[in-house]
Write a structure and sequence with these properties.
The structure holds two protein chains of two kinds. By secondary structure, chain A is an alpha/beta fold. Chain A has two domains: 197 residues, 3-Layer(aba) Sandwich (D-Maltodextrin-Binding Protein, domain 2), CATH 3.40.190.10; 195 residues, Periplasmic binding protein-like II (D-Maltodextrin-Binding Protein, domain 2, 3-Layer(aba) Sandwich). Chain A is built from 20 helices and 15 strands. By secondary structure, chain B is an all-alpha fold. Chain B has a domain of 177 residues: MetI-like (MetI-like fold). Helix content of chain B is 73%, strand content 1%. Chain B has 14 helices and two strands; from the N terminus they run αββααααααααααααα. Chain B has a two-stranded antiparallel ribbon. Chain B is globular, with a radius of gyration of 24 Å. Classes of the chains: A alpha/beta, B mainly alpha. The interface between A and B is large, with 37 and 35 residues.
Amino acid sequence: MKYFRMFLLALLGCVTAYLLFLVQPGESSRKDGRVVITYWEKWNGEDAAAMQQVVNDFNNTVGKQKGIYVRYLSMSNVDQKTLVATAAGVPPDVAGLWNTQVAQFAEINALEPLDDLAKAHGITADYYKPVLWEGCRYKGHLWALVSSCGSQALYYNKLLFARKAAALRKAGLDPNRPPRTLDELDRYAAVLDEYETLPNGFRRLKQSGFLPMEPGWYLAYIGYWFGAPIYDPQTDRILLTDPRMVKAFDWIRGYSLRLGKDSLSEFRSGFGTFNSTQNPFIARTVAMELQGPWMTSTFEKYRPAMNHGKYPRSLERSLSPTQRQENCEWGVAPFPSAVPGLNDVTFTNFDVLMIPRGVKHKKEAFEFIAFVNSQAETEKLNILNCQDSPLRQVSRHFFEVHPNPYIAVFERLMAGPHAYGVPPCPIWPEVGAELDNATQRVSLLEASPAQALRDAQERVDEKYREYRERQRARRGSQG
Amino acid sequence: MTRKEARQLVRGLTFLSPWIGGFLAFTLVPIVLAFYYSLCDYSLLQSPVLIGLSNYRALMGDPIFWKSLINTLIYAAIALPAGMLVSLGLAILLNQRTLGQPLFRTILFIPSLVPTVASAMLWLWLFNTKLGLINTLLATAPMQALLGALNTVLHALHLPRIETPIGWLTDPAWALPSLAIMSLWGVGYTVVIYLAGLQDVPRSLIEAAEIDGAGAWQRLRHVTLPMLSPVIFFNLIMAIIGTLQAFAIPYIMTGGGPARATYFYTMYLYDNAFRYLKMGYACSMAWIQFLLVVLLSALAFWSSKRWVHYQGQ
């Protein structure tokens, strides 16, 4: 019995030692000799399934020829997990992160530069839409390539416009077209607003023409539509107190003043989540929104009739582009700018593929990234995900089969000279949090636009100064 | 130490070794390392560079640090006494021998079993300004009449009126108290501990007080509470630690908004560590939080000499 117990203890010790010191995380090659590369991605649901198709394509074609196999894992908090895994020396070969993290991760040396590999694969500035190419670069190097991207435009509900046609005409507005200037947008919105009065005298908003805070995902970048630069690359300074930025925030405040902040807050609390039938655009309680091309698939999932009002879905493939647009309850147009002559302004948001520092199979990892960025595959992925194509050259097929019949509007905006992205600032997540706080303070009438932006600027300046000082000191200490 | 004692010691330590190993690897070493990193510029991927007390100095001048700390202290100042009073009151009520006592005890404990995320979603709907049950009840005629009377009093005291519908989670003035109200949802565990303590109050003492002519309030004040004071003290320490570390509920329900009205200390710590990749800064925040908990617990221990009574002393 004594020897048996000793044997058991020794066995337990051996297993523990083996698990702790000898087991390698994941296999790096398969029985067929193909190098296995791990790819971590943030997407789930249909987006994850779309990427799975691209991964399968790679594994069955280029991967097979070149002896590479991609193991694809979809997960939450992918950025944190990538960071921790990289610090532990076992990073994934490819990580699917966000564009806001390109500068942040590059600055702390978390990524492998991709310049040479991209050049060898013919992926250059001429291949990409300029705003995306610049968004993948930081301090003269390429750190990422795009997986999925979307520009923002104005969605308007034609049905709600038609219901209020008489009132719109009375206000001198055409109910058969979207607003073309920001002033016009405000006037359309005011006509489309509807109220009811509660027994206690509270004036409840029932329907709104437009709300800057709905969904409010891109309010940090609203300055672009007012001609504000937000960031100066020459001086490497974030410009939150630029008068044009103040004007943009004053426009946000205008809606709280006109609709009443309590009424607005009560109205918004009745909205459901984006992915639900209570999405206010789907529920027809908000008539206009700033959104990306993916909205079509959300309509398809939660209120398909919004996409097929005139002709049944079975006829979709045989319809002309104009008929496809007529089939929708909604329309898309460039979001109007506040500056006369400044047209086709958009903010571009995108997901990126990066290679974390210290990967074992950098070349093989880039083979996969390059494959995702081939015209056929990127168009396939972005049709499935209902997004834009990141490439300059877009095939006719892409426009014909894309689920969003207005995809040409988004493509034009993203390829245009007034397409803007996230500034190349390594502390942008902090700047974004400050801008988010400033928009909330302004919309709640807690601070004037000038004050809220001044406070944000002060904090951001201090944070950025400290960050640069520490990075300088670090570089100095490392020689 | 005899050979037998030495052998017993080794055997005892062997049995304890999983806990000792776990404590060293997952608690003590991280605490010590966190202190070292709090003195460094450290982003997880770059090697730590010693910068002395710079992180602590920077925190002192960081308005968001102060905002998050003040929010947390206000929340603790509301949630802690409210939680203690409500749970003690409920425990005393549930300790009465009445019909259906086990049923009431079970009902009260059930909310504690609901997962945090599910509780948060439930309360998001209860607090919803437009569709929430609370505002729907407040909109009824009797409640409106009651609110009208309350507003008259508030007006006389030169205090702001309560306007309905209340933006429980969307109005910066209401958001923090709303989260404190919600914290009462999980008092079930504390009530169970109080109930166990109440079972331990010697019946002879209560009977002696009764014979001496003590009423219900006097028995509670002079017998039950002093006998229960060690349990109250334990719950106080746990509540101090819990309220100062509030994270999951505000993170899910408000994300720190509106306008940072519910941005808690632990949320800012988390953001610094994992969103802004300032691990050294986050470690210094963690250490300040640790010291704050130690300080408040030490204060509680110091004051306990005056109000905590142990049996047999």
